[in-house]
Amino acid sequence: MKYTIAVIPGDGIGPEVTNQAKKALDAIAEVYDHIFLYEEAQMGACAIEATGNPLPDETIKTCKNADAILFGAIGDPKYDKDPSAKVRPEQGLLKLRQTLGLFCNVRPVKAYDSLIKNSPLKREIIKGTDIAIFRELTGGIYFGKKEVSEDGKSAFDGCSYDVEEISRISHLAFKTAQTRRKKVTLVDKANVLETSRLWRKTVTEIAKQYKDVKLEFLFVDNAAMQLILNPKQFDVILTENLFGDIISDEASVIGGSIGLLASSSLGKRNALFEPIHGSFPQAKGKDIANPLASILSAAMMLEHLGLHEEADAIERAVEKSLLLGITTEDIKGKNKYPASTSKVGDFIADYI
Amino acid sequence: MKYTIAVIPGDGIGPEVTNQAKKALDAIAEVYDHIFLYEEAQMGACAIEATGNPLPDETIKTCKNADAILFGAIGDPKYDKDPSAKVRPEQGLLKLRQTLGLFCNVRPVKAYDSLIKNSPLKREIIKGTDIAIFRELTGGIYFGKKEVSEDGKSAFDGCSYDVEEISRISHLAFKTAQTRRKKVTLVDKANVLETSRLWRKTVTEIAKQYKDVKLEFLFVDNAAMQLILNPKQFDVILTENLFGDIISDEASVIGGSIGLLASSSLGKRNALFEPIHGSFPQAKGKDIANPLASILSAAMMLEHLGLHEEADAIERAVEKSLLLGITTEDIKGKNKYPASTSKVGDFIADYI
Ligand SMILES: CC(C)[C@H](C(=O)O)[C@@H](O)C(=O)O
Ligand SMILES: CC(C)[C@H](C(=O)O)[C@@H](O)C(=O)O
């Protein structure tokens, strides 16, 4: 089969890790007799530098027409230091999510046995952790009305949600829970926010259609504690955009394996796959960044395209590299002969 | 000296832990020859039950006239389950913060050596952690415009900040940093939110008046990770209301000592002191809740009233109880003959 893949390497370590994912896909293509047509596109700081626009029209077009989108990372400290900058890399990603309607961000958080020792948490706390975080991605305060007063002395961000936005991702969360441990935890701040109360009401209604799934509620402040105190209590976490941003990043470090976590962002027609880690500018170009999350994003993408066996093949190769210790220094430690980014990619491709 | 203390026991375990704090204060009064006049007031679920109002006018008056306010905890699961409830316990606390202008919430997070073993995090990660979190408490999305559409199908929360609100707490944060390790970390989401960009701009300006203090910025999602990966990097954390709610609760569990963490909420004329832990309804009335955070809130209050020696005396008594293991089961474990709430209170009072 032939697939068109939009590839957005992005900023920082994005290009180097995405290259390794492409190596893995090329190996899959060879073994399973597929054709992956990569269409490279720009987004983020690199796009601003090249075109002045963090999300050129060309990129939107490429993404719309592709069977799936593989994305690296976005962001450059240059822009963070200047809060008054009108054009920022992140706008590219936000606009892409909005334009393609990628409303459902799924972030699986798993404690890999071989990586538990890298976790800041104690083994007995995290061993066995397996969470799927469903974060709403095209609503809430991210996309609300923004204002600065004329004198620049006050600022405003609006946060809205409607039943439709809440429902579509909730159904996906409940359906996923049915294939897992049958529990959904809604994270909100219903004791303070009107939007959270709408989430609670809507999700409570929807839960009635999934009688085999248990629904629990947790205030976001409490959730931030529970994730550390007892992450194993969670199966599927469902939450709005901003809480999902915070909670999923927090969750990503507990397993000691942020360099291995991939995520998908799903819309009605399009789907984007990316590592959870950011652009990590300090490591850019040094061939030391861990490519496994990007490679596993490619596996998630194959899964999404219905290529289950192919996805498994990548996952097995990743497990092998962990087992043999052919890994970058974030996992292996600086003094233990870590492999370079490209060496890890080569190994994965060869093994496949 | 004579001091009038407004005492708000509140809900859940609030009354039992506050009682122990009063025992400690009574002991201080005796030894140091002070008079503490307690004026009890109601707030929260208990106030709703008694008067229909989570914050009766009487309570506001009592608090306004007191030299300081000692508060227990708020909240009852009964109200959480019903998102459409018009009257909720938490409204009492929010309205009190607003009415008294308690804009600056300070939450010290310390890893007590004797409690590190209770932490979900590894010893080497947390040993030495000592953070002061400055959370803005009367602005942001907590107090913005709230709306539900007529058909109930969409909801809205507005978030605003102005330079004045940001400045007053920022000055306090920088001044505190000057007496500590001279670093302020502003936690925001300036890559997405207009209000965060105003925070960044304003705080950057203010920092120029505190040249001996280093200012750093961290996106809230990254902060949620860094708090777990390397909490020792932080000295003073400064942040807006909602981020402060999440981040400070997260931080409170890393030391294994949430039962020991106290906080102050400061306004121009009034100051309120409370444990960080919540109303813990499951433990209500069982005489098992840890009273140390409430007792340490009383110490914070004495400090605020300028009674430094007296505050030290309470802190020494708390340390002694930890050393001797005269502690409740959350610290000691169920099977190791934990002391009851009131026994811990008695010990502290006797020791003083
Ligand atoms: C880059 C940034 C705008 C983005 C977000 O906040 O959504 C990132 O943190 C993420 O989680 O994908
Ligand atoms: C009870 C609740 C409204 C409150 C808050 O969110 O501010 C609490 O969580 C806190 O942190 O004091």
UniProtKB/TrEMBL annotation, chains A, B:
It is an enzyme of class 1 (oxidoreductase). It is found in: Cytoplasm. It catalyses: (2R,3S)-3-isopropylmalate + NAD(+) = 4-methyl-2-oxopentanoate + CO2 + NADH. Substrate binds at R97, R107, R135, D221. Pathway: Amino-acid biosynthesis; L-leucine biosynthesis; L-leucine from 3-methyl-2-oxobutanoate: step 3/4. Residues 4-348 form the Isopropylmalate dehydrogenase-like domain. The keyword Ligase does not apply. InterPro entries: IsoCit/isopropylmalate_DH_CS, IsoPropMal-DH-like_dom, Isopropylmalate_DH. GO terms for molecular function: 3-isopropylmalate dehydrogenase activity. Belongs to the isocitrate and isopropylmalate dehydrogenases family. LeuB type 1 subfamily. Catalyzes the oxidation of 3-carboxy-2-hydroxy-4-methylpentanoate (3-isopropylmalate) to 3-carboxy-4-methyl-2-oxopentanoate. The product decarboxylates to 4-methyl-2 oxopentanoate. NCBIfam families: leuB. This is 3-isopropylmalate dehydrogenase. It comes from Polaribacter marinaquae. The gene is leuB.
